Amino acid sequence: MIEPNPLAGLFPGATVTGVVGGFVDNGDDFTLNWSGGTTIVDPTPLEADQLGLMIGETVNVFVGEFDGLEIDTPSITRPDGSVVLGGNQPVVPPEVPADPLIGNPPAPQLDIPPMVATTVTGTVINLVDNDEFLLDINGSPLLVDANLPDSQFLQLVPGEVVNVAGVLDDEDFDTFSVTRVDGSPVIPTAVAPPPAPVGVPPMVATTVTGTVINLVDNDEFLLDINGSPLLVDANLPDSQFLQLVPGEVVNVAGVLDDQDFDTFSVTRVDGSPVIPTAVAPPPAPVGVPPMVATTVTGTVINLVDNDEFLLDINGSPLLVDANLPDSQF
User: Fold this and answer.
1) How do strand 249-256 and strand 205-215 relate by DSSP bridges?
2) Is the pLDDT of residue 240 over 70?
3) Rounded to whole angstroms, how far apart are CA atoms 310 and 299?
């Protein structure tokens, strides 16, 4: 029995209809997903990233030549008859140079404010790079960039629904958190920390209260503070994990630096500790001299070990160590 050849329809003079899958060869060509598989398309005389094509859109490609690997085409149209390449209509290259891997990024959504930490929900159209994907939001595509190292890849499949937190800039949506509807993280670690919420002073011991968005590592999580995300780092050993679930409210004490909020205490609303031991002691409150016998009065925040506890002194936390044997509490 002779097996059917899925590429039999690719002969000179034929027209093939398919979906733009991605851009290859530094933007010179693009891939076309059609009923016979995936084929490289080489447009002439323009390069693929000059055609104004969008990943995921449907096009009709005229086959000028086919060498068994790629289609050389002088003519591309859309299903509505509009000309992408060839014909009497000139094709105007984009004003901004296109990304060689993804071509021209889709227009940003009008309801997403630029340069503000925002969370959006949509359906994955397809991956366009190891750390970039197209997200469908109410019928409009959004290019999302997770800024991962080249060795890391997003574990996403077309059609799944995800929540994406990040900032919209001029070209794409830079994300620091991608989670599925069940709360599980897609990005294993936060790559670009979000701007600190208003009211959290830098380099000062502070206690904030918020709602856990999701865990991004064994000792890091995103905390929602009045609608603004804050990346919290507990600096735990790799063998220890934060016992947190998305949606629970916690009190977090720590210091905001340039990258994230380094915490030394995470407690639940009932006062129970999330971090079993203090990892980074806070700066001593003002008025407590170093290396001098002193008596201070304060309110216990929580125990962090059998012989250590956090004491609140006029709003500033102090880590107190009683140096007891492990058998005493």
Assistant:
1) antiparallel
2) yes
3) 9
Are residues 63 and 22 part of one domain?
yes
Q: How far is CA 78 from the centre of its chain?
A: 32
Cα–Cα–Cα angle for 242, 168, 188, nearest 5°?
A: 25
Query: H helices within 181-325, ranges in order?
Result: none
Q: Which residues contact 7 (CB under 8 A, 6 or more apart)?
A: 36, 37, 39, 66, 68
Please give the pLDDT value at position 117: 74
In the chain, the N- to C-terminal Cα span, in Å, equals 81
Residue environment code for 12-35, b if the CB has 16+ CB neighbours within 10 A, otherwise e: eeeebebbbbbbbeebbbbbbbbe
Which run of H or of E encompasses 222? strand 220-225
Which one has a higher pLDDT value, 296 or 9? 296
Listed residues 242, 268, 294: the one ending a domain = 268
In a domain, 244, yes or no: yes
Q: Could you give the CA distance from residue 259 to residue 133 in angstroms, rounded to a whole number?
A: 25
Residue 276 lies in a domain: no
Within-domain flag for 94: no
The SS3 of residue 324 is coil
The verdict on residue 185 lying in a domain is: no
- pLDDT category, 250, cuts 50, 70, 90? very high
The full DSSP string for 246-277 is: TT-EEEEEEEE-SS-EEEEEEEETTS-BSSSS
Given 268, 292, 308, which residue is the final one in a domain? 268
Quickly tell me which residue has 């969008």 as its tokens.
54
Judge whether 41 and 48 are in contact, CB under 8 Å.
yes
Place of tokens 């000179």: 12
The separation between CA 173 and the C-alpha centre of its own chain, rounded to angstroms, equals 9
Rg over alpha carbons for the chain, rounded to the nearest Å, is 27
Report the C-alpha gap between 54 and 56 in whole angstroms.
Answer: 6
In terms of residue numbers, what domain contains 149?
Answer: 118-180
